Amino acid sequence: MTSFTFLHVEYLLQAAVWTIVLSLVAFVFGGVAGFVIALWRVSPNKTLRAIASWYIQIVQGIPLLVILFVAYFGLAIAGFKLSPLVAAGISFAVYCAAFLGEIWRGCIQAVPKTQWEASECLGFNRFEQLQKVILPQAFKIAIPPTVGFMVQIVKNTSLASVIGFVDLSRAGQIINNSTFQPFTVFGCVALIYFCLCYPLSALSKHFERKLNVSNR
Amino acid sequence: MSAIVSINNLHKSFGTNKVLNGVSLDVQKGQMVAIIGRSGSGKSTLLRCLNGLERIDSGDINVCGHDIHHPDKLNLRELRKQVGIVFQSYNLFPHVTVERNITLALTTIKKMATAEAKKIAHNVLTLVGLEAKKEAYPEQLSGGQAQRVAIARSLAMAPELMLFDEVTSALDPELTGEVLKVMEDLSKQGMTMVLVTHEMAFARKLADVLVFMHQGKVWEMGPPDELFTNPKTAELAKFVSSEL
Amino acid sequence: MHYTFDFMSVFVNWPRLLEGAWLTIQLSALSIVLGFVVGTLCAIAFKSKSWLLQALVKTYVEIIRNTPLLVQVFLVYFGLASIGLRLTAETAAVIALTVNVGAYTAEIMRAGINSIHPGQIEAAECLGMSKFHVYWHVVLLPAVERVYPSLTSQFILLMLASSITSQISAEELTATANLVQSETFRSFEVYVVIAVAYLALSFLFRAAFWLVGKTAFVRKRKLGTNL
């Protein structure tokens, strides 16, 4: 049994870099997909609306862990042997797409109907309406909840440890298995997560206050 | 006969703003006292001191036998069982029916049985003419109806003194009549009432004592007819002419 | 792709999977009830005059909301064991889930309580109601009605998150699925089946909350409007 030293903390911090990488992958890919989903949810096309709606309902009704297992263990059987990183990346992207899609749909719908009417009466087609009038306004509304969701993304990356990916949580487990000091080790892990998440939470609250003030 | 309300040299400030600057006033049992004056004259603050909603800085104030100027000896809840208040924004509980709005205090404070509480609710609702609305929710009522329910709610606690804080100011003109009628009936039945109001005609017709407040003091006080026809001070004269 | 799907080998294990699902329901329901009480008490504490109490509650809420549930579960299970408090996996799971949902409930209930107009509280106090009764009848009950959708969303998230407790071997649905998978090697089928099972559980919980809402909030049922 070794004691918990600064070397271990270094190891944790290096693993934390992977947590950040995984979070960014999830946000970028999930964000792009989520953006498409959000647009489909408000589309006049019934089929697109239905697909997006079903996608969101299904993904939001399944634990992220199960999605992860389907991607890692499940697809392996079907011949797609994915590395833990890729499996985790895909799972998180799928998960984020559903949640971001739902959040952003809400923000698009929060733009007053009168904006749609005014822009339509000026002769904009749907694409121009979205691009020039609706989305810029929806973007502002979307900042607080999106930043808030980033906190969830960072926390969710901890599940990648379950399929063996050495993120911050897995690193903590590895160290705990040799030092047997769970309070210290996981306490340190929690502290690092806190340092990653709390600024995002505070930023989200800051943006929300700013948004409420400007709306008055 | 000892007064229901006895105020002597009351002072109150909000920060640096001196709102009540030496107010002295007595209210006898069965009287209707109407307090008038410009906004900022201290009328609402004075009213809110009477049931402990505002803390006083100095002076003597005795309401229904309670010494309000000694806050540590004061039993606020006991005082409030004897003093009812109706607010400008009625403040009905939106999530329960009209009947429950009235029986809630009765069952929780006076520990009454539900049947008995419902009987009292029936009585006070009949008094204000809204027995038919007892299963309705506040959002289904008009402003005038809601205010009458608020009066009924306070009446249900059988207070000795009723306070009215500009209760018709937030209502559309055609709805004030029904509320003023209820207040008139109450007064005729002998309730001691102190009201802050802008309804000059009502005050003139029904109040026993009119109190004109200005700059935190009782500027003039007396029978309403006298004050309206022969104001002694320039401020009251100006106020009366601008209101009529 | 030379793989034949074999769902039957999963379906023959349905008694075990059902037991796992039942434990998921039990863990979630218990944690939701306890967590709701904890969260509501914390929301009330947010308004207390003692700055120490406020600071403690705020710290608790921020720590839980900014750290992953997995790490919280490890801290409860392994951490407490290391100081001599050996808990069963199920007990540790309930504790960790309760602490977790308590923090989120505190934030939601805080918003609900703040949304109650001060005039309501003043009116109730002026009728002579005790602080407790004012809080219960005029603040908490309407607050819960207002934030009920947020609360139920959070509770369903908790039920799904209970899958994480499989990592300390609580024998809930995901852990059972892992066992079945290790025996049958039918990973895809197993996890697809429990994905569907969780969807069913989500629906079940949603329906249960809907029913509770309809029963508890009489005004909403009759009038259909929001408070």
TrEMBL record, chain B:
Species of origin: Herbaspirillum hiltneri N3
Database matches in Pfam families: ABC_tran
Compartments reported by the entry: Cell membrane
Annotated protein name in UniProt: Amino acid ABC transporter ATP-binding protein
Record-annotated ABC transporter domain positions: 5-240
TM region(s), chain numbering: none
UniProt xrefs under InterPro entries: AAA+_ATPase, ABC_ATPase_HisP-typ, ABC_transporter-like_ATP-bd, ABC_transporter-like_CS, MetN_ABC_transporter-like, P-loop_NTPase
Keyword Glycosyltransferase: no
CDD domains (UniProt xref): ABC_HisP_GlnQ
One GO MF term: ATP binding
Family recorded in the similarity comment: Belongs to the ABC transporter superfamily.
Principal location listed in the UniProt entry: membrane
Keywords: Amino-acid transport, ATP-binding, Cell membrane, Membrane, Nucleotide-binding, Transport
The UniProt record lists the keyword Nucleotide-binding: yes
Native organism taxonomy: Bacteria, Pseudomonadati, Pseudomonadota, Betaproteobacteria, Burkholderiales
Membrane topology summary: Peripheral membrane protein
